[in-house]
Amino acid sequence: MAGRVAQTAITLPGIPHVKSGKVREVFDLGEHYLLVATDRISAFDCVMPNGIPQKGVLLNQLSAWWFNHLRALTPNHVVTTRFADFPASLQPFRDQLEGRSMIVRKTRVLPIECVARGYLIGSGWKEYQATGSVCGIALRPGYRLADQLDEPIFTPAAKADHGHDENIDFEAVIRTIGPDAAHHVRQTTLVLYREAARHASRCGIILADTKFEFGVDTDGHIILIDEALTPDSSRYWPADGYQPGMNPPSFDKQFVRDYLEAAHWDKTPPAPALPDDVIIRTRALYLEAYHRLTGETLVADVFTA
After folding, report:
1. Are 168 and 157 within 8 A, CB to CB?
2. Could you give the CA distance from residue 103 to residue 35 in angstroms, rounded to a whole number?
3. Which residues pair with residue 224 across a beta bridge?
4. Which residues partner with 166 through β-bridges?
5. Burial class of residue 106, CB neighbours in 10 A (0-12, 13-18, 19+)
6. Please, are residues 60 and 101 in contact by the beta-carbon 8 Å criterion?
7. Three-class SS of residue 152?
8. For residues 3 and 22, is the Cβ–Cβ distance under 8 A?
9. Which one of 26, 214, 238, 278 has the minimum C-beta count within 10 Å?
10. What is the pLDDT of residues 58-96, one digit of tens each?
11. Interaxial angle between packed helices 179-202 and 55-70, expressed in degrees from 0 to 180 and rounded to the nearest 10
């Protein structure tokens, strides 16, 4: 894209690298981790060869905004996103880090994707059509595609190293992390979803579903980690475009998925490069969601715990 380059790779010589995700890079700072959100975008479990300019900045700052907004409901892992407060060892990397990174507490990550659904869409809709239930939760008959559920439900998934996460029932969560932790993350997930959905509604946005991750800190407390309520981890729909019975327009990467479906790609690597018009439209959707939800414009320093 003319005048804009997506920052899809992060290299910090001398800073120990822990792992690469589809979007984020993790570095070890000793007591803490450094999380860096790149401009990479994935679809169908494959990272696209070109990214979305400023996407990492938006994801990082929207997560920071939500972590701050929800901190009264549950503790989280954020130490700071203010680059001025980063250690001296990171100061030479301002161009790569400012605005798109946060320093976080280390935790033992719970191997469960904690999903809250308020609407019936995606894999939940497919499972409901086949079985009348979602993740072992029986639902009443008569729901249509994208209908609002009578009550939000907790629909966990087991994390997969490769491919899609697998939907599981609550008993599997108990077997994986124990009953106390399982009940805690279920309750916290639904409390966070309800508050986030209320806020989004005031902004003219429907939060259809979202995914949270939790970890256990050094004091043994379960805290919110990773990202929070970004378009990558949530389905956001414009309220004025919502109509039950049809697939609503969205503020997430559905525009990318739709392009790839139309391109007849077989969904195996390597993925095709995204054309400029898809990049421009996707970036605009992410930015609109950010502005509506936060009432802010993108800036480098937005949050300190």
Report:
1. yes
2. 6
3. 76, 214
4. 158
5. middle
6. yes
7. strand
8. no
9. 26
10. 999 999 999 999 999 999 999 999 999 999 999 999 999
11. 110
